[in-house]
Amino acid sequence: MRTAFVALFLLLLTALCPAPAGAADNGEWSVRPADSTITPRAAFELPARPGTTLTDRAVVTNTTGSELTFRLYVADAHNTERDGGLAVRGIEDAQRDVGAWGKPERDTVTVPARSAVTVGLSLSVPRDASPGDHVGALVAVDTRVRPADGSHVGIQRGVGARIYLRVEGPEQPGLTVEDVRFTARSPQIPWTGSSGSALSYTLHNTGNVKLVPRVSFRTGGLVWGGPGERQLGNVPGELLPGQKVRLTESWAGAPFAGWGKITVTASANDVRGSGSDGFLKVPWLVAGCPALLSAAWLLLRRRRRATSRAARPARTSE
């Protein structure tokens, strides 16, 4: 039962982790940085030097009609393998980066109905912290355990405000495209049905700063059907340093025949990476045409020979 509970808890944290431009809000409570004197903030964006301690403040708001109690903790962020979305580690997980460096002023906070509480936050950056981006979140977990629909397993919900910590030092962006695979599922007879091909590839942030990748592909060789190049969707909005994500995109209208290669190119922060996969797609009708033509030629040749023999005059003996 504990295993199922933890899995649901992490799933909800993943689903509720906010986008960079959005508020960390699930409709009942929210977590956000305390407003600065200049402009409201959607996330904690903090420059840092190794060996220093940073302090900030967060506001936890309860918009319901009842008092709510939350457990607060700082978590490491990572890209999910499923779709590359940003997720955070659970409260019982080992934290190794921002989650290990950060600590809220209070581990538990009770917020009255339709009220807000401000809580201090500190981040102690180790002396050996690597330069570049370190991403996490300040998470508020509802202490109530709710029954899941149609299940006896309980769930808890959490909301996290993102923390973007940039440790000073050389910035080294890096991006590669790995293990490109083109899977063709085109109709065997051209123009008789729709194709259901797919293009899979791995994006790998090999640098030390977060990236906002753009991905496209192009085809080369002798190809019939399908676009020559296209921008790909379903790309992570942020790819964190060191993270790999495996992405697959369906491709309606892919080439129904031909040979060559498909090259996937990703770019971000003035860096580019590419990967390719060769393909050979020959519908059975196209592949069978030479055989059919050969058979027809042989049949026609035999008929001509038979006709020629029948048309020869019979020889008479004297």
Descriptive account of the structure:
With about 325 residues, this protein is mainly beta. About 15% of the residues lie in helices and about 45% in strands. The protein is built from 3 helices and 20 strands. Strands 3, 5, 6, 8, 10 and 13 form a 6-stranded mixed sheet that branches. A 5-stranded antiparallel sheet has the order 1-2-4-9-7. It has a 4-stranded antiparallel sheet with strand order 17-16-19-20, with no helix packed on it. The chain starts with a helix and ends in a 7-residue tail after the last helix. The model is unreliable at about 1-20 (pLDDT under 50).
Describe this structure in a few short sentences.
The chain has helices spanning 2-16, 98-101, 284-311, and strands at residues 24-25, 29-33, 44-48, 53-62, 68-79, 86-88, 102-104, 108-111, 115-124, 132-142, 146-147, 154-155, 158-167, 175-183, 197-205, 214-224, 229-231, 244-251, 257-268, 271-281. It is mainly β and 318 residues long. Strands 3, 5, 6, 8, 10 and 13 form a six-stranded mixed β-sheet that branches.
How many beta-strand runs?
A: 20
Q: What class would the helix/strand composition place it in?
A: mainly beta
Q: Tell me about the biggest sheet?
A: 6 strands, mixed
Radius of gyration: 31 Å
First CA to last CA: what distance? 109 Å
Q: Give the helix tally.
A: 3
H/E series? HEEEEEEHEEEEEEEEEEEEEEH
Determine the fraction of residues in helical runs and give it as a percent range.
Answer: 10-25%
Query: Rough shape?
Result: elongated
Q: Residue-averaged pLDDT, rounded?
A: 81
Low-confidence parts, pLDDT < 50 over ≥5 residues? 1-22
Strand percentage lies at: 35-45%
